[in-house]
Specification:
Helix content is about 30%, strand content about 25%. An 8-stranded mixed β-sheet has the order 6-7-8-3-9-10-12-11, sandwiched between helices. Strands 18-19-20-15-21-22-24-23 form an 8-stranded mixed β-sheet, with helices on both faces. A hairpin with a 2-residue loop joins strand 16 and strand 17. Helix 5 packs across helix 7, helix 17 packs across helix 18 and helix 18 crosses helix 19. The two termini are about 45 Å apart.
Length: about 700
């Protein structure tokens, strides 16, 4: 289908989508209008539950049985999708409109090889022959920079990495050269380096294919990387739209401004300020307010906002906002300017380390998974998850551990927590040897060391109330007298901004952010000396993430707790941590104070991680450093420097043959690399201009 440059590819007019539920009708999308022009990328951003995915499925006419389009039109190349019959929809889906989903494992068939899944698209939609379709699929895999496409065609999806699975989905979507490509959170869950590669690929394919894209994400930094135009949704409504430059540099709706305040600032030389979470909650879609839907959380709200519903109006050329006071100064921004910048991290106390890790090694047994393994003639191997790692953590300080998936971050935390026994090395916690599993540790030690996991659902008993979950450590450790337990639980609920009304609620009655707050309250209930945080923010919306970050800092200040914070998000680490260790394939490649890692000299891997961070600032110029290839297997790590197979600054055979030395930049800052410090200092900084 050839698109006229004088008409939009997609035109959504006053769309309304309603879900029928037991609690009554829920208007998930209300009065949404937008256009996407040929060759442009429209970014759709907002918190979970704002209606982004519902809008995408409405465009595909893929709504569930309990959902219906109750008003409006969806014009695709001047054809109303809402009025199409099933035969017309089958022709358009996959042929004219293609979709790339958030979870590639849910979109790919695990019982079929990649080749048949790709060729089926061309056979079904284009009537291509088997040989012709296979050749076209191989060419498309090459165009999405898939390594060894011939081999990939013969593999199953579980044999591919997350980034490779996403490339397969993108290739599948582009095979028919669709007029519109819908991408629903396509980089969520990927490592920051893989995410950067996928975003680069999307930008490249847009130029090469002149593809029109609707890109949905909750990440403002990701939207800034790919979008020409941006639409912001809140509680089912479109609240602001404009160019990416206008949205990120001059937001007019208070919700957009509040979202941007939730994102940690990250750049060399910039003093960190407290992130500002959005107070309150998103209103229920079953009973939306008669006035402005954002009024209860808005700093600019006035009496008119409670009784009148604002229309979306143009505030500048090409910039629209649904707000009566879009041009009013933002009180929260003015308050921040008056207060001035403030470093939010807690200063370490004393010189004696709370936790001392020395030469830690943790290997997992692995068997050959091929035919020989199935026949019982397997080869025994070892996954070197953590290989000779040494780290110190001072009292009241926070150590961040960053790196790609599989680098060994979580294994370190599990060893410290006693969930995994180490094979070698020393673990000293407040002067006690803890190189043993948790069952062999005294109860007093359990009180001093707690852990917050990535998924609170897996750690909260679905049959126990919130109050019972938080009270359990108080009872076990005797933190307060029995008669004071309920009062202490209520105090902790107030501290995590939930309140006493949550005491008798079950986990299924809470949102993801509320569950994580309960997990945080429970971890700090025994007033531990050390808390291990394993990706506790990665699944949260940016506003909830900001609230939990502030809560972690408040608890640390109150109790003087030390923390190990594991994350792949350098922005969060920069906000929370006093020092950082960068891991790659089981080894530490750089460690030092947080500020030191954001300007040269740094390890080439650290530079690549920094360059991959998506930041919602169109003015920030950065060096583009992309890693080639995939992370090698920990079963058979490369000799010499483990990073040499992907290093953009490899200097020769020495990197392949010899283990690199530790180079001391300062007493606290060390880099594990063959490149001399003098040369590392001459590298252009990743962030070339300050925010």
């Amino acid at each position: 289908m050839i698109n006229s440059p004088k008409a939009p590819v997609l035109n959504v007019e006053a769309l309304e989508v309603v879900y029928t539920t037991r609690a009554g009708p829920a208007k998930a999308v209300r009065d949404v209008s937008l256009e996407i022009w040929p060759g442009k990328v429209l970014g759709l951003v907002g918190e979970s539950g704002c209606g982004k995915s519902t809008l995408a499925f409405a465009i595909m006419n893929y709504l569930t049985d309990n959902a219906a389009i109750s008003a409006g039109r969806i014009l695709f190349c001047d054809q109303d999708i809402v009025r199409m019959n099933s035969r017309e929809l089958r022709h358009i889906r996959g042929n004219e409109i293609a979709m790339v989903y958030q979870d590639p494992m849910a979109a790919l068939n695990p019982s079929l090889r990649i080749g048949p899944q790709l060729t089926e698209v061309l056979v079904e939609h284009k009537g291509s022959s088997g040989v012709e379709a296979r050749d076209a699929c191989i060419r498309m895999l090459q165009r999405v920079h898939m390594p060894d496409p011939l081999a990939v065609m013969e593999r199953y999806c579980h044999q591919l990495s997350g980034g490779q699975q996403q490339r397969v989905l993108i290739a599948m979507a582009l095979l028919t050269n669709p007029a519109l490509l819908i991408m629903d959170e396509p980089t969520t869950g990927l490592d920051v380096t893989v995410e950067a590669e996928i975003l680069d690929l999307i930008s490249e394919l847009k130029r090469e294919f002149d593809t029109t894209i609707l890109f949905i994400s909750h990440s403002l930094g990701v939207i800034n990387r790919v979008a020409d135009q941006v639409v912001v949704m809140y509680a089912g409504e479109l609240v602001e739209q404009g160019s990416a430059q206008d949205i990120f540099l001059d937001p007019r709706h208070p919700y957009t401004a509040a979202l941007l305040r939730c994102v940690p600032k990250i750049s060399a030389g910039v003093q960190r300020t407290t992130v500002r979470p959005i107070r309150g909650k998103v209103p229920s879609l079953h009973a939306t307010p008669s006035g402005c839907v954002f009024e209860s959380r808005c700093d600019r709200a006035r009496d008119r906002c409670r009784t009148e519903h604002p229309e979306i109006e143009q505030t500048a050329d090409g910039h629209w906002a649904r707000c009566f006071y879009a041009d009013s100064p933002d009180p929260a921004e003015l308050e921040a300017l008056r207060a001035g910048p403030a470093d939010t991290r807690v200063s370490p106390i004393g010189d004696a380390p709370v936790l001392k890790i020395d030469g830690l090694r943790t290997y997992y047994k692995a068997k050959d998974q091929g035919l020989a393994g199935i026949a019982g003639r397997h080869k025994q191997g070892f996954v070197k998850a953590v290989d000779n790692v040494s780290l110190d953590l001072g009292r009241n300080s926070t150590l961040g551990i960053v790196g790609e998936s599989g680098c060994g971050k979580t294994t370190i935390a599990k060893c410290v927590a006693g969930l995994v026994p180490p094979n070698a090395g020393k673990l000293d916690f407040i002067g006690i040897d803890i190189a043993k599993v948790v069952e062999q540790r005294p109860v007093e030690m359990l009180k001093e060391l707690q852990m917050i996991f990535q998924n609170p659902d897996s750690t909260l008993n679905p049959k126990r109330t919130v109050g019972e979950a938080i009270a359990r450590p108080l009872q076990l450790f005797g933190t307060v007298p029995q008669s004071e337990i309920r009062n202490e639980v209520v105090r902790l609920l107030d501290a995590v901004r939930l309140g006493e009304e949550y005491y008798d609620r079950l986990p299924r009655q809470l949102s993801g952010g509320e569950k994580q707050r309960v997990a945080l309250a429970r971890a700090f209930a025994g007033r531990p000396t050390l808390v291990l945080c394993d990706e506790p923010l990665s699944s949260l919306d940016v506003s909830v993430q900001a609230a939990v970050m502030n809560l972690l800092q408040e608890f640390q200040q109150e109790y003087g707790t030390a923390m190990v914070f594991i994350s792949h998000d350098f922005g969060v680490v920069n906000q929370l941590c006093s020092s950082v260790a960068v891991m790659y394939l089981g080894k530490i490649c750089e460690t030092g104070p947080t500020e030191a890692l954001f300007k040269p000299p740094y390890h080439p891997y650290t530079g690549a991680l920094l360059a991959a961070i998506p930041i919602p600032d169109p003015t920030l110029e950065r060096n583009s450093i992309r890693l080639l290839g995939t992370v090698p297997s920990a079963l058979d790590p490369p000799s010499g420097c483990r990073f040499h197979t992907r290093c953009p600054r490899k200097i020769g055979p020495i990197c392949e043959q010899e283990t690199p030395p530790w180079r001391e930049v300062t007493q606290e800052h060390r880099i594990h690399c063959h490149i001399p410090l003098k040369e590392l200092r001459t590298v252009d900084p990743v962030f070339r201009t300050e925010q």
